[in-house]
Amino acid sequence: MDTDLTALALVCSLKASPAESSSELIARQVLDELAGHGVARETVRVVDHDVRPGVEDDMGGGDEWPAILEKVRAADVLVLATPTWLGNPSSIAQRVLERLDAQLSATDDEGRPAMFGKVAVVAVVGNEDGAHKIVADLFQGLNDIGFTIPAQGCTYWNGEAMNPVDYLDLDETPSAVASTNSTAAANAAHLARLLRGAQYPAS
Questions:
Q1: Number of domains in the chain
Q2: Which domain holds residue 140?
């Protein structure tokens, strides 16, 4: 099996390390599934870094986004994981999209948008409704930026509304979530290999 693919999970929890995070848990589960397909993996909890607001590659003043962006550029698969807050993705997830927006004007050596050929998967957790809307919003943003979305390229867990139980509190991963994690990872790895072998046409 080809093992030179890499995946990066950007965890958009509002909790800084070392606090436990349901978003990080589901991201790591997807990464573990990707590892079974020969994909190397890395996790970045974005809130641990000083990522400034803006839509440029480097906002200056100690902005730590450029180092994260280099990891995104080096990865074949991006896993974007977010909690649900008030029915929406976290403010950290929104900031990641805003910072990635600068890639719309970046191109490779043949004139393609810089993120063409990269695959994106979304993972959402929360004990309130909103996962479908969050996935739709993130998919649209990621696709606009140039990422390719695989079939069934999202996974999520919604707990009972107004219940304090979080995903990381569960004794075991629900079978439906585990199955979805597996499918999303398998399809992402498959698509990433196809794109590695046959990139989109140059503009």
A1: 1
A2: 5-197
